[in-house]
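Lay summary

Proteins are chains of building blocks that fold into shapes. Our project writes down both the chain and a compact code for its shape. Here are two examples, one after the other.
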Amino acid sequence: MRKIVIGILLYPGFQLLDIAGPRNAFGQVQLQGEHPYEIVTIATTRLSLRSACGLAVIADHHIFEPCPTLDTLIVPGGAGVFDVYEDRTLTDWLGGHVARWRRLAAICNGVFVLGGAGLIERRQVTSHWADVPRLRAAYPRARLRPDAICFKDGRLYTSAGASASIDLALLLIEEDFGRTVARKVAKYLLVYLERPGAQGQFQPLVSRRPAADGQVQALRDYVLAHLDAPHSLASLASRVHMSPRNLTRLFSKQLGTTPMAFVSEARIDAARDLLENTELSIADIARRCGVESADSLRRLFSKRLGVSPLDYRQRFGSASSLSPASPGKTCSLTPLQA
């Protein structure tokens, strides 16, 4: 089997974890007795590069010399991406070489570099949830998958935040060497082969941006203060003396969602807060948030976040088994997913 050469593009201010995580995962394949990957770094400058955390890196190659033969190119994210993603030298380099590569991948906001080179139009991509609004505004013709941890569209691969760089690497390893090898690497790295849930479990669902219209803002504040009330589109419209159709139009324009979708996501956010900070039962939390039953809350969480309320509490609650261990105790990890 031929050696698989993976190139990693570096620019000033790249996220170090975005290259260290995948590099470690690819390195573990060799330890599993399989044919190794060869990893090469390619810089946007002839000088050494300083990462976002301050550590400097000297790349193997730079874009001003002939490009090495690559199977896959990975573009990391980082705070510096917004200084380079529209640089013509970089975008022309990408555009001139992309046809030669079997796969093209971006981690976190590294997808902006692909966007700058015109490589994500009409393509399904993801990024870190905090960068999604900016990505949507910059590339309206891209088909965003904001909840996805990792997403593949043909030979284009994108992933969410820095830790999702390992999810991406595991996906590539599974394609190259099979699920058994990928599972062994995941177990060694103490991560899930397929991470449960979606990005929604990490981000607030309800926008904190104030509405421009006073009536919409007043209704928004009322809903947040009375989540346990039996809201309906008709009752909300009646409260601000609007027709349901007009209220839906204004809500969608100013808050980017419908009134009832806002209610549902506000209830999920409130339930998440109670799961994180209290030991209330799932039934009590459902009642306080205006959800009819514990089963209904479970269905809401499963549909929107991809996890159950109990799983969410275990991961993010103050009493979670994954929280820092107190003196005399050891940390416990949930079993690795097969």
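And here is the second example, written the same way.
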Amino acid sequence: MIKSLNILLIEDDAIEVMKFNRVLKTLNLNHRIIEANNGEAALDILKVKEITPDIIILDLNMPKLNGIEFLTILKNDGVLKYIPSIILSTSSNHKDMLECYKLGVAGYILKPLKYDDYVDRIKKLLEYWSLNELISQ
């Protein structure tokens, strides 16, 4: 059964956030999106523990606390480290990918240039995680 997800979206580019939300609306997906514009803001959201996300989707290149710095802190937390984290980035830098996988990301997706390809990738990503058995906090 496909379930609705609580998704923490960590992205500093407002256009990318709008694009992500537009894809969900276009696909009639009822996932709850919690937005943070950098890793620091995301950690604040996670500390409050009002909503524990089922998955985290984050960009790498952000101000204050970038994606890799955020992941390092997240994966060192005894509880938060179990939340699947998926990188959604324009960086195809092999060093970035390797570092993210070393830190324990659940996936690394390159943002495609064409909107239709972006829609397809987000659809597949969310379908996959909607079917997964996730650990409840």
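What can we say about the second shape? The CA atoms of residues 74 and 81 lie 6 Å apart.
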